[in-house]
Design a protein that fits this description.
The protein contains eight helices and eight strands, in the order αααββααβββαβββαα. It is of the alpha+beta class and 215 residues long.
Length: 215
């Protein structure tokens, strides 16, 4: 893992430790392997993050994300409010299309999934809340960049992941894209042109959400 992101090394290394723990590293050895920091540095940063409540230890002594991260997250009003407003629209979209639906926002150089409604199909696309996906692949990334066809939506087939098709539409507010609504599922069900099948429903959900989030 490259820990160099900003010009403040200790912050970059601390974030690397947090990302490693978020990715499943619990023991100090696992954190060292994930971050490529030396053992002393990794231990010093992990224990400091624990003292600040950003990390905690379970009964086995392994590191886990701390509850202070959760409390800080509650103060990030934009995505939280958007996710709450978007959930009913995602649920309705899932019921209409019988496919999984997601809501994405831009976070740095990635897109972050902030709300989902999973399909009831045994074979379905599963994108968990908190998942980070590339901005440059998939219809969700294109929609977040404001790139749509004449119908107001965009679609992709096996672009981000083999066997998966999706259709997405941007959520607009005050002339800018604040989120993207997506429907995704196996190509066998969505076909080679998922926009033709589900584009209008996805666009309607995105318009509804944009209207609800406007002041």
């Amino acid at each position: 893992m490259d820990t160099r992101v900003s010009s403040v090394g200790v912050i970059d290394k601390s974030m690397a430790v947090l990302d490693a723990v978020a990715g499943g590293a619990g023991s100090l050895v696992e954190i060292v392997d994930a971050t490529r920091l030396n053992r002393a540095t990794a231990h010093r940063l992990a224990t400091a993050l624990e003292q600040h409540g950003l990390l905690r230890r379970n009964i086995d002594g392994h590191f886990q994300l701390g509850y202070r991260l959760w409390s800080l997250g509650q103060l990030v009003e934009g995505p939280t409010d958007l996710a709450k407003l978007g959930q009913p629209a995602l649920d309705q979209l899932r019921d209409l299309t019988e496919e999984s639906s997601q809501l994405y926002v831009v976070d740095g150089e990635e897109r972050l999934c902030i709300a989902v409604a999973e399909s009831g199909h045994g074979l379905r696309t599963i994108v968990a809340v908190g998942s980070r996906l590339p901005l440059d692949r998939g219809s969700g990334g294109a929609a977040l960049r404001g790139e749509t066809g004449s119908g107001g939506w965009t679609s992709s087939v096996a672009e981000r992941e083999a066997g998966v098709a999706s259709v997405s539409a941007p959520v607009w507010r005050d002339g800018r894209v604040i989120a993207a609504v997506s429907v995704s599922g196996p190509i066998d069900r969505l076909g080679s042109d998922p926009g033709e099948r589900h584009g209008p429903q996805v666009l309607a959900a995105a318009v509804e959400l944009g209207t609800a989030f406007s002041p």
